[in-house]
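Here is a typical sample entry:
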Amino acid sequence: MSHALDAWLDQAVLEPGDLDAGDAEVLVLGEFNHFVHEKGDFRIAMARQARRLGFGVWAEELGWSDGRRLARYFETRDEGVFDRLSLFGWRGEARPDRDDRPTGIFRASWETYPFARMRAEQARFYRTLEPGAFHGFDAAAGHDGGYADLLARLQATGAPAAWAQAIARRPGESLQEEAVRRSALLDEAPTGLDPLARADLSALIDGLTYTALVKDAATYAETAPAMAFREDAMKRRLADIRALSPGKLVLMGHALHLVRDDAALAAPGIVGPGGARTPSLGNHVGRELGLPMFIVWMIYGGGEDSQPLADLPRKADFGPDTLNARLAARFDRPVLLDARTAPETPVRIAHMYN
């Protein structure tokens, strides 16, 4: 494999302008680490190519409610929107009568999340982006599930008052009780309900359910049911996005959420996308929906990240047999490689948490 891989690297480098997505309806920008500076550089560079190739609908691995607020930012360029993004630390919809904060394995991520650095990096990218439409496709936590946005949308679109008022929070209800009650309301939604309001309510229910599943998980293995639910919730958000914003779509997120075929990968020892219980979002797009995909992965060679989980490594320790280490040894600058011409031999790719 070594000689074949070296021969491929000698002739695989592309110029960005040579990128051709063919008949793809979905352009995937998959990063292997959310918490490195180079992710922003990658997205900014690829956004230029996406515009050139006619991709105008953008969707990112962040909560639906954050996506809704960012859509307003792209309409107005008012950076005050950034102050109300949960990704940047906003907790304005936390219930005063219930504590939805994680108590298990993800408690540390709540307490040490690098909000200031995330805001600096993401805002740098958002300022350069000119989307035709923008959405989030992840399951939001219960405290930031777009409750206020949903009520505003229902009022603006004239939803029946009694039904809309039944959406309101009820003091003392648990996460599960709130999710079940609102699921029944969604099933009873009035004919002609605004499609965006329906999507807002569905995303809110999924956020509550996901939070209930994940908040008390004491080990990574115990998060598997939550990860499976989250992956399927992403598929529901994708369906909403395609209905609300037809067009050539860019999906941004961790590469393992967005692979074309789960069966082509082996990722032992991790509780990854789908919790090993349900296909990834990418597999859903490529195999179940059969949409033509063009995939670009950001692979990095080393360094440190800002991920918030103190029990997992922040310094890359990639073995010499990984593609990461081999690329880092060969190139001293970012390069674009055409993997379609690569030798058909399995190769190890390292990513966050080693």
Summary: The radius of gyration is 21 Å. The mean pLDDT is 93.
